[in-house]
Design goal:
single chain; alpha/beta; 6 strands
Length: 188
């Protein structure tokens, strides 16, 4: 007995439908995995940007407070400092990835904002920290010259003072930490 062509095609339609369903499922799973990866990347970028903004704010606060001081006194460390801390020498090592070093009151000051009232930065795990350090008074340049040549003015401390301002901030979690540094020249 011979089968009709109608009966021979029933299994083929089912097989083709299953293959198409499998392809659509693989595309959907691949798309979901890609979206998840993109969301993780964007989250890390947000975290890094938040840490950078915190460090930048702290750096600008340190520079502003340094400009407001006439000339600031230097100390061995930042213990007890509330508005500015100018260490007598730059730290031997900034401990770039060591938040516990930055979070110690003898090493850095907590970010307060552009005025003495406390400002907040949104969603950071901890408040940014900063410090300043004295580098030199009117150092000799590469040609052997200094800016202030009058001995009387130099003895009174008139001339450029070079300071280093350092800042650090963690992001929205403790996986990212950003450090920034600038050199500031103040003339008194």
């Amino acid at each position: 007995m011979k089968q009709s062509p109608k009966n021979q095609q029933r299994g083929a339609v089912l097989l083709i439908s299953l293959v198409i369903l499998l392809i659509i499922t693989l595309l959907a799973v691949s798309s979901i995995r890609e979206s998840t990866l993109e969301e993780r990347i964007v989250g890390n970028i947000r975290n890094q940007q938040a840490a950078f903004n915190g460090a930048e704010s702290a750096l600008r606060e340190g520079e502003k407070r340094l400009r407001q001081a006439e000339p600031p006194a230097t100390t061995a460390n930042c213990t007890g400092a509330t508005t500015i801390c100018v260490m007598a020498a730059p730290p031997g090592s900034l401990h770039v990835n060591d938040w516990s070093w930055w979070n110690t009151n003898s090493n850095a000051i907590t970010y307060k904002g552009s005025n003495t009232a406390t400002s907040s930065l949104s969603r950071l795990i901890s408040r940014p920290r900063w410090n300043t350090a004295f580098h030199a008074f009117d150092p000799v340049d590469s040609t052997g010259r200094v800016e202030v040549t009058d001995p009387e003015l130099r003895s009174r401390g008139v001339g450029p003072y070079y300071y280093e301002v350092n800042a650090a901030s963690q992001g929205r979690n403790d996986q990212i930490m950003i450090n920034l540094q600038s050199v500031s020249v103040q003339r008194y």
